[in-house]
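Summary for the steering committee. The consortium agreed at its last meeting that each partner would contribute one worked example illustrating the joint modelling workflow. Our contribution is presented below. We chose a case with several input lines so that the handling of multiple components could be demonstrated. No manual editing was applied between input and output; the record is shown as generated.
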Amino acid sequence: MTEHAKKQSKKVQSTPVNKDVLLLFLSIFIIAALVLIPSFNHNVAAGMSAINAEASNSAASLSHFSTIYDTLKYERSIHVLAMLLVGFGFLMVFVRNHGYSSITATFLVVSIAIPMYMVIKSFGGEEFSMSTINIDTLLFAEFAAASLLIAIGAPLGRLKMDQYVAMGLLFIPAYIFNEWLILESGLFKGFLDTGGSIVIHAFGAYFGLGVVANTLAKFKDDPACENTPATNQFCLLGSMILWLFWPSFTSAIVAPERVVLTAINTIFALCGATFATYLFSKLIRGKIEIEDIANAALAGGVAIGSTCDMTTPGYALLIGIAAGALSVIGYSIIAPKLEALIKGTDTCGINNLHGMPGILGGIVAIFITGRPFVQLSGIVVTVCVAFALGKVSGMLISLLGKKEMPYSDEDEFFLAE
Amino acid sequence: MTEHAKKQSKKVQSTPVNKDVLLLFLSIFIIAALVLIPSFNHNVAAGMSAINAEASNSAASLSHFSTIYDTLKYERSIHVLAMLLVGFGFLMVFVRNHGYSSITATFLVVSIAIPMYMVIKSFGGEEFSMSTINIDTLLFAEFAAASLLIAIGAPLGRLKMDQYVAMGLLFIPAYIFNEWLILESGLFKGFLDTGGSIVIHAFGAYFGLGVVANTLAKFKDDPACENTPATNQFCLLGSMILWLFWPSFTSAIVAPERVVLTAINTIFALCGATFATYLFSKLIRGKIEIEDIANAALAGGVAIGSTCDMTTPGYALLIGIAAGALSVIGYSIIAPKLEALIKGTDTCGINNLHGMPGILGGIVAIFITGRPFVQLSGIVVTVCVAFALGKVSGMLISLLGKKEMPYSDEDEFFLAE
Amino acid sequence: MTEHAKKQSKKVQSTPVNKDVLLLFLSIFIIAALVLIPSFNHNVAAGMSAINAEASNSAASLSHFSTIYDTLKYERSIHVLAMLLVGFGFLMVFVRNHGYSSITATFLVVSIAIPMYMVIKSFGGEEFSMSTINIDTLLFAEFAAASLLIAIGAPLGRLKMDQYVAMGLLFIPAYIFNEWLILESGLFKGFLDTGGSIVIHAFGAYFGLGVVANTLAKFKDDPACENTPATNQFCLLGSMILWLFWPSFTSAIVAPERVVLTAINTIFALCGATFATYLFSKLIRGKIEIEDIANAALAGGVAIGSTCDMTTPGYALLIGIAAGALSVIGYSIIAPKLEALIKGTDTCGINNLHGMPGILGGIVAIFITGRPFVQLSGIVVTVCVAFALGKVSGMLISLLGKKEMPYSDEDEFFLAE
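What follows is the complete predicted structure of the assembly.
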């Protein structure tokens, strides 16, 4: 294989280095850093003063409790980081000969999403801006990164590395706009989506589908996406990491006394989805498809999002079973039809894992809020905004050219010989 | 390899889809969900009321402390989940061409064990039932899942997927019975087993051995279990995950002020076992056997269980050294004799990792409790109950038929071509 | 491959079992255990009394807060363990056919470093000794283990397993000496290094370079270090684990109210370094080198160490960008020159990841402390002490002989056939 790889390497045309774009990206990063300097940015300066004040006052119980609750949230923020990097990163390693690209893209979009979200949110009006030195802001930034990672699952394998970066730079403002529209603008008062079935999962999924819509013709004669037992093994690792840290995702920002309830509901939903995935994979296909296990088993986590801190374990188990079944049906039956409909390829099947189960979760919340109109209109608006902005982003990204070898590391990475 | 695998695939006879069994399993899950609905189940309703009451009262310090301690336990419950899925799951991936099955079986039995334990414990008398929405109940359910994962290590590779499910459904009531008998019935008052050397590790191990006892003839002409450097690499990942989160397993339910002591004792025991494993593997075998490193290094965690919150680091180091040595001797010398004795194959060597080191841990506790009779009789009873119920379960499971290709994914999974 | 490996195996000369050395090591472990027995060791006895006193008094708020803060630190200590084992362990798996050795060496040196640090620190004068049953002591011991793991990255692949053990036994006292000299002796008052850019990262790096200095001739005709996509994939897993738990490393011992600030600064530094790594790898080399992504992306975490709890996110992002760029320049341009200079091979490139970025971090701290002399002299002394003691250790280690097959598992492990 070594010799073979070497020869291959010579034939391969490298994707050219686009120096101007890279230097533009660098400038954006440096500017982002500069605008956060305390003397320019009230939100950073205020955060530092608060910490120093707290330090001089730390004997008071109240200050202790707020520090402790923040630190407990910090633990969950690390769990979410594990999901972002190892979880999503390795889940996307299943594409054969594309592991380096999947991992590097994950590293890059996380590194763009978190600072960019926090920089944008450190400006703007009083109801929009958030303290830059604050655990909640970090968690919201991580949610944005998760949504972006979901979105890149659709075009995965067909973008150059700098196109992932560009997609990240376009996605974050779009995500912040939708988040504001649905949760902060006051237009959808009473919309329930604690764990982000809609604003995180469905938004990311339909943004991603927007990016790939009408791109099928462009990649028509290119090699197809393949996987192997070895790459799928890494994918299953990513899947397990997502599964086990999911309770920290849904409980990240719930009220302190609801963390345990949220965790138990989330675990029950995941258990239900995992079991239903095995069952329906076997019933529908005759044998078990490992892609179902790696993905659909997580659909319970997606669907429980909206109601994670309000429902009870029995209902959570039922939601999970429904989500797992829906997701397997998505992978086995709906996916080919959808790809024909949008004329684009959804590499990771994000509609099956994040799209449809997310919408299911948003709809189930009606039983709790009793406000079908608010809930449904919030869902429809999110899906439309996501798809439309994704479509526009897809057109902008395509201006940066085309990856030389789809589903391959060879054109952008040195491969070991 | 691709072409080869493809050809193989055609020759392979798929394990038939047993629809009735699958639908029976689904019904069990749905019934489990229904019996937890608050209006039917006092334990769920009471849990929700308590949370809502706490919310309205969260200014009081006492309520804060209870919420905080619960959330700290929650963090440990996530660590234990990491052990269950990535730890046990990947530890069992060492079997060549059986990675999909090992991972899927792990996902499934965890998804069965946790809800089933919590459903059963939400009923029964006052001294038996536990609140369904409670972090302690979740932790006990995770312990049950750990014990079950230990047990499936014995027949690993020789069961069909639905037989793992059936084994889970039979195991959990057996585990709950033994847990009640030893810890709650009052018959073994003063029995010390904080971290579960006996009720978790030894119970799982001897239940698993019971399942495989007298099954050797059945699999006589089947291919043997193999491993490769690549599969062993994944196995070592599982081993490391188990090692590093083990302090959260032993300290999961200890008193808050004993968490740090328990963690330090556990780490010292693991360090001692790891070092002894290297040493005895080299001394006994001449070269290092990676199976020893992946497994016996963990024996310190098993053996420290009973006394984890009562002993001190020096003793913990000695217990760890003894457990590591015992476990290597188990893998290298005792295992073949035991397999001849019980006429069955112990795929993962659970007797060497969980059986004997667990018993060692239970015996060491005598130095702390000073009650040799209670301690020894608790051990003997657990081993006998586990083996007997395992034997019965093994016979029931075998009614579901026989896996077409032992130690292979091919008969139950689509393999990438 | 199986048959081939089998044949190879026969040709290979095993590294001989050095029984005396192994038994000496065992005695050291047992003595370490004995000196910690409470009746001999005041620090253990005092720790146990404190815990028992706390238990009887746990109603008081003050005692609650101290228990809670300790438990929050405990969570971070587990995160650091994840970095030590899975992070460093798998980062070192990139060497082809050397995975078992990398993982086993990681297990062993962690198992030596933690107890040894705590045993040594449980003796000595009042200003030197630390309570043995204490979360801070455990964290400091984990830092020592991290520094040792950095150091073994230099000779990785060219030491026998018992030489790693010997290197650990020599390293820990050297590390404790430097830690005392810089932070406790009072000679460098005002030296800022909260997250250990200097005392952990730079010390480990230059100790390791000392070990390999002047060893090139010895390994002249030996096979070279190779890597493959599969081994690099595991390496990237290690890298991600290090990345995501890094905030817990830097915030491990900061004041409670500074944990969130430290975490956000650390994440921003890592984001900056990750982005800069991609950019400079592509600009300097034309294609992306995966070794850069796996390593240089972490340089931000190394460099933010000294100032992690004092700076703000914007500056952190800039420090990260600088560190990432410096590290890529190290891997691509400086490394070959350095190896020629010291006449030794730095397998993992620890100078590029931990050495130079560590020094950068120490220098940046001058802007905060305003004490250039103290800061610079602390850096110079650490580098000199590390290199000199590393050189001496390297000479002592070489007395134990030479590994039969560099960069190979075959001489010390049974390989699956």
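Chain C touches chain B through 71 residues (CB under 8 Å). The CA atoms of residues 138 and 348 of chain C lie 27 Å apart.
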